[in-house]
Write a structure and sequence with these properties.
By secondary structure, the chain is mainly α. About 75% of the residues lie in helices and about 0% in strands. It has 4 helices and no strands.
């Protein structure tokens, strides 16, 4: 079973069941070492960089993000 199949099946669960699953998954990350967490962040950064390189995501300038964040805080 691959992650996409698991994601699809998990999203088909009732909200209460999804919440329980999310809690269990998040708590399982508490057992990771700092080195494992760092490796996961490196993998995530590489994945995002790959999406940028392939043109799969739209970049948003920092000043626009900052303005939108300030607007949300008002």
């Amino acid at each position: 079973m691959n992650i996409e199949t698991i994601r699809h099946e998990a999203l088909a669960l009732a909200p209460q069941e999804r919440a329980q699953l999310a809690e269990q998954l998040l708590s399982s990350l508490d057992t990771l070492t700092e080195a494992e967490i760092e490796q996961l962040w490196f993998q995530e950064a590489a994945r995002r960089a790959d999406e940028i390189d392939k043109g799969l995501v739209q970049l948003v300038p920092a000043d626009v993000v900052h303005q939108e964040a300030l607007a949300l805080l008002k």
